[in-house]
Amino acid sequence: MSAALRKLPFFLPFGGCRGRCVYCHQQTITGVLEVPSPAYVRSVLSKLDEPREVCYFGGSFCRFGRETVRAYLDAVTECAPAGSRIRFSTYPSDLRDDSLRAMVRGYPVACVELGVPSLDHNVLAACRREADPDEILEDLAILRDDLFCVGVQMMIGLPGQTPESSLSDLERIAAVKGPRAWDLRLYPCLVIENTDLELMMRRGEFKPLSVAEAVLWGGEFLDRALSLGFNPIRVGLQETETLAVSVSGGPHHPALGEMIFSEAISRRLVRQAPSGPWSAPASETSKFTGHGKFGLRRLAVLTGLSVEEAAQRLKFFPK
Q: Superfamily assignment of 7-239 in CATH?
């Protein structure tokens, strides 16, 4: 198997978006204030000395219009080193057009990621997300049948959402996915300044998750996702300077993703051996020993053991 290419992301804040979800402020989340042009992308890619996975994130890539989409794709094939590939995120319905899909298939696309924060009608309406759950599943099936590598970007802690509804969403997507290994990004909902969600929180219409609640919910979600054959490639937003000073509420913690992974792994180990012994790859040591021995403490809580006893029953093996 060839080594995975290093990712080179370009953020296109609100590019192609027809509206704004209540929780979204992409300039704050990414720290990028303007959409980079295809010419700018070309200038960056022409300086690379090794192939990369060029990523177009933010907004809805396929809503830029066909010629602009082609210009961004051509920038990779014409300017990046040979062997480079392309990943982009777009709105679920954007690739229903057969001719647009055929055009995209002509490029070295590594993965198409779709934003699917929820499949619950009420949650989507509360978030002002223009989507029909059944049509989203149809869109996923279309990409599956066209043999695209697919990724889904999901959320927890949204207005009106529950752990049960989010797990149901995951099961429905897994039924479409089948045995394929689809990428998964999981984003616990944060309240960002100057969003409608902040107004909802101030008015008492929305209560964001605490860090502890997000870890438990996210851990259960991730544990189930792994069982269903998803490949989690990110949990939680990438920390930026602008994000750090712009969160008004919700589970904002620099180690949130790590703790959610720790929770998921701890649940899995206890399910496999309720009182140990357990073994885990050495690469996951920090998930148990870091952040105040978070993973070891979770093993202790889940089993009734002391932290010391849990540590004695957990061994790490080279990966």
A: Aldolase class I (3.20.20.70)
Domains of the chain by residue range: 7-239, 255-319
pLDDT at position 18 over 60? yes
Q: Give CA–CA dist 34/36, Å, rounded.
A: 6
The residue with tokens 């920390």 is 239
Cβ atoms 91, 129 nearer than 8 A: no
For residue 103, give the nearest of 116, 86, 115 by alpha carbon: 86
198 contacts 248 by C-beta, under 8 angstroms: yes
What CA–CA distance (Å, rounded) separates 208 from 213?
9
**CA–CA gap between residue 312 and residue 57 (Å, rounded):** 43
pLDDT tens for residues 63-91? 899 999 999 999 999 999 999 999 999 98
Cα 207 to chain center, whole Å?
22
Widest pairwise Cα distance in the chain = 62
| Contact between 36 and 75 (Cβ < 8 Å) | no
Does the predicted model carry a pTM greater than 0.90?
Answer: yes
What's the pLDDT at 240? 77
| 204, 242 contact by CB (below 8 A) | no
91: Cβ contacts below 8 Å, ≥ 6 apart: 16, 60, 62, 63, 114, 115, 131
Question: DSSP class of residue 57?
Answer: E
Look up residue 9 and give its DSSP letter. E
Residue 71 is encoded by which pair of tokens? 């210009």
- As to burial, measured by CB atoms within 10 angstroms (0-12 exposed, 13-18 middle, 19+ buried), residue 164 is exposed
Ordered alpha helix ranges (H), the chain = 26-30, 38-45, 66-79, 98-105, 121-126, 133-145, 163-177, 196-202, 211-227, 241-244, 256-272, 285-303, 307-312
Secondary structure (DSSP) of 128-190: T----HHHHHHHHHHHHHTT--EEEEEEES-TT--HHHHHHHHHHHHHHHTTS--EEEEEE--
| Length in residues, the chain | 319
